[in-house]
Amino acid sequence: HIFAFDGWASTVVEHKTDYVDRSTRKKDAWNIGAHAIVRVTLRNGCWKEDIGYGSAINMGKGPGLEKAFKEAVTDGLKRCLRQFGDGLGNCLYDRTFLRNMKSGRERSIPL
């Protein structure tokens, strides 16, 4: 329990559609891109903010917008949490950690 079950909150600070273009490959389909700025705030007031991006290709307009926004918010949330350290995904950028994972050696993740 890194933050405890109620030790953090997330907020979508901004979300915008970057483009909505008709697909040239499929009738009644759209290509959509969106971004979201997400903030994760800890109980002690410390916060991290980052941007996430999402897209939908060859989808209906409504479902495509929903997918692009959901993907952008999820990406932004993951990017925020990664900034809090190795225990929340930053270890996935550590080549030594990844090598140890592939070889089957266990390594504790510092919090």
From TrEMBL:
PANTHER family in alphabetical order: DNA REPAIR AND RECOMBINATION PROTEIN RAD52, RAD59, DNA REPAIR PROTEIN RAD52 HOMOLOG
InterPro entries for this protein: Rad52_fam (IPR041247), Rad52_Rad59_Rad22 (IPR007232), Rad52_Rad59_Rad22_sf (IPR042525)
Keywords carried by this UniProt record: DNA damage, DNA recombination, DNA repair
GO cellular component: nucleus
Gene3D superfamilies documented for this protein: DNA repair protein Rad52/59/22 (3.30.390.80)
Protein name: Uncharacterized protein
Family to which the UniProt record says this protein belongs: Belongs to the RAD52 family.
UniProt KW Lyase keyword: no
